[in-house]
Input
Amino acid sequence: MAAWQAVIHHPLFGVGITLAAYQLALTAYEKTRWVFLQPVLLSMLAVIGVLLACGLSYVEYKQSAQLLIVLLGPATVALAVPLYVNLRRIRQLFWPTVLTLLIGGVLATLLGVLLAWLFGAEQMILMTIAPKSVTSPIAMLVAEQIGGVAALAAVFVLITGVLGAMCGPELLRLIGVRHPAAVGMALGLTAHAVGTARALQEDEESGAFAALAMSLMGMATAVFLPLMVSLLS
Amino acid sequence: MLLRGLTWLVLFQLCGTAINVLWLPMLPGPIIGMLLLLGFLLLRGEVGEPLSVAATGLLRYLPLLLVPAAVGVMVYMRVLAADFWAIAGALTLSLLLSLAFAGWLMQKLIERQARRGGES
Output
């Protein structure tokens, strides 16, 4: 029993179970290719299961997973590299891309908040839903900054991505959107990395525009959403 | 190579944190770091080998790095359950509407640009 206690309270226990859960989830995802088996969601559930089974609190897990948590900062800074690479592609369809980013991006953000407000969600949830269309590391930072919860933001972002990847291409075909750049733009703008992966399966040009849209939407949300909220409040 | 690139990334993040505390409390430190690095890359006009190695390496494991933060949901189960339908409805509806709208708008704008290009 003493050995068991020493293991589950070891300062590396969190890192251990997270690494194990992630690799299992990744294998499950690669075997099945089901979009709703997103490795992050699956390993999150597995880790929560282990913590509950061992009677560990989130606070203790967070301390013992610190090694992974601190790397999230540099990884967020590293997003500038794909952003820079994608930005060079914008010249092809400059105005359509910029206008769609501005109007579509504002709509995606406002509509989420507005609907959640209409359905009676509380303030904290509204601020967490606002950055749902951008890539998780940015969404988490932005949510926290404007009074939401990083953990919930990560989950909302993933659910949005999965929904977009599942229904996006069908929906776009249904309403007659066929241009590969338009399909990619819509998927990347609203469903970030998961949508971009889906767009890449459709067509190479779609994938390129999805990556561009995701990068632009991430940057625009990171800068303007906290500014807007701090001006309004 | 990897270490040199990682040093750059950490340095940019630390600069971001300093700027966040000094002048820009409304933008998180890592995001300022990202914008600084983007500015640096735009000035330089290329991504150096060490930076490219470190960024690719880290971003490959980005989903793994997100797991500990996502596990934090377990603390918010009650809030999540209370607002479940509002959240589910808002996420689904706003995604479908904005996705369809963004695709439609982009296609219209591309068609317009093509027409104008054809006229001139």
